[in-house]
Amino acid sequence: MVKIGMAEETKTRTSTGSAGTPGWVRTNRGRLRSKIIAWFLIPAAVISIGVALLTFYAYQRVTEDLVLARNRDHSLLLANQLGTQLAGYVQPLAVLASTERIDSAVLEGSWYADARPFDGGLLLLDPAGQIVAGVPSHPEVVGQRVPAMVYEDGEAHYSNIIGGLIPGMDVIAISWPLSGLENQDQGVLVGLFRAERGATRTSTFYQDIWGLYIGRREVAYVVDGNGRVVFHPDTFLIGDDFSGQEPVQRALRGETGAIRTLDREGKKVVAGFAPVPGTSWGLVTEESWADLIEASQPYTRFLLVLLALGVLIPVVVAALGARRITEPLTRLTEAARRIAGGSFDQSIDVRTGDELEVLADQFNAMAADLQTSYATLEQRVADRTRELATLNEISAVVSRSLELNQVLEAALTETLGALDMEAGAAFRLEEGDTLVMMASRGLSAPFARRVERLPLSESLAAQAVGERVPSARSVDAYPGGALKALLQEEGLRMVVSVPLIAKDAVLGVLNLATRTPRAITREERALLAAIGQQAGVAVENARLYEQAEATAAEAERIRLARELHDAVSQTLFSASLIADVLPRLWARDPEEGQRRLEILRKLARGAMAEMRALLVELRPATLVKADMAELLRQLAEAVIGRSQTDVVVDIEPTPSLPAEVKVAFYRIAQEALNNVIKHARARHVEVRFGARNGVIALHVRDDGCGFDPSDVPSGHFGLGNIYERAEAIGAGVSVDSALGCGTQITVTWRQDGE
User: Fold this and answer.
1) CATH topology of domain 646-750
2) Highest mean pLDDT range out of 89-93, 249-253, 514-518, 737-741?
3) pTM as predicted
4) What does CATH list as the number for 386-393+401-526?
5) Is 619 helix (H, G, I), strand (E, B) or coil?
């Protein structure tokens, strides 16, 4: 495949020429039309974009400077207006201060008459700053000293927010020195405004400030000399500390100006600031930057539209002009690329009357030759690919199981799908002349029952089996009979029989049927033959698996017979001999007869234990369900019966064990006791089984000849079997033995799996 790009060339090999020599086509990665547009338009576009961005940047800077200047002037104006307004509150105090003598009655009368704006009340201070009188009456504050900032020198003084002066409220104080004839240098008159969080406009002080704010888009607030809010449109912020804000800091330093910054919520704003004349206060205005530049958005969009038009129009004009020149070359290049990709059905029509038209005619002739050459090969490759895919799928499905029914059912399903047939059946060939149905698809139940077992001579598969190749026959051409009538009732018109062959023998047949007759091609017959061989191998494998299972069952029966002969038969033979001589021996020596009778009893019990153990071997489920104590006692009695060894079994209560753990302990005990019988020559054996602290333990101890655990002779697999079974359940094994000292085998298993 040829990839399209710019500034790179590749060589693409095409079909061979008439002389058999390979041809090479140089393909330029990139399109001439794109290059023409790029060479002429990219510089112009870069310049246009640069000019537009510079213009927009200059506009933004000018807009920002104008906005900052406007907000600075506006903040200064509001600050001056507020200072003038605050100065008006001094007049009532100045009038009252000129009174010849001031006492509580005079204060109260003046407050009710002329000083009502002071909603926090009036205070009279002596020269030392001690409260002499006040209205409304606050007896608890009389005699207290007030902060010096309340009565600093000057004609009028505006304080910061004061807390604790009047119980239960924050206030702002305006002080005026007493100037009456009898009050000269005798104290200070103080008017108080409440600085309340959530204050309403019923306060004269806040009503006047609200009058400055009404109708403004920006947020304007006033702070005292400490940065605490005196006024804010959100009255619940009154009293909050705004000293950390840069505009507040600069206003309190006496600066006037405006800056772009972030408000307390992190939003971009333009903040104007100015000091309030005659006070230590500052005024700050904040206006959303987004709202300020909203008016410039139409101009921004206009610039973008102009920029787009300035780039798009030249591109369109250049593209239309280049297209008339490069269109024939583009079509020829695309057609050549498709041919290189394997699509040979290409033809282009060029009517330019020049060399391009001649080149196009030659190209069309070459494409026609290539299409003719590769058409047959492409079809053959496609057919072969489909056949291989079908064979692979059938091979996969028939190899998933060794059950003959499943193998034939899978082969039938896949083959029906490969040949687009509606119905079919899979048969196993028995005794060379009988077909036994193993699977069916698309057949009615009565028809399937009728052909469950069918003589080969009566079926449509006789020819395929005899010739060992797939055969197709029309149902109408089949000789009359019950089978033909059944096929016609099913609506089937044609049957294809595929023999299943393995090792040059026919093992079965796949019969495929359709209700719409059609011809079976040679390629389809070859495919069916391959399917028959593939499925035949799977059938042979399933047959061998059945034989292996039968052989294993026969071997198990032989093993059990040997066990019966080696154990039970010998024990019963010994018991029979003792029983024959016991009457005569009893008559001659009753004591010896009593001893032999006890031996006979042990032999009989041992034989019964051996029989129960063999029954457990025949029915493994019994081993899982049986009680562990009973199983160990059976093993002990079998040892007593076979070897006359004294065996003691000590079983402690144990919790319920998983099936695999119980089986492992049983097999280990069985192996250990067999080793005692075969090798130990012991007189006494002790078997203990129980649980302590979450650990299940099995102990098998004998007083036999013992052995060296590090030097076990070859051909002795008993200990190896014990270790393998213990490892399978995660148990530990300990073997304690020495020559002449007996043997003890201990197996431990933790219930928590540790």
Assistant:
1) Heat Shock Protein 90 (3.30.565)
2) 249-253
3) 0.39
4) 3.30.450.40
5) coil
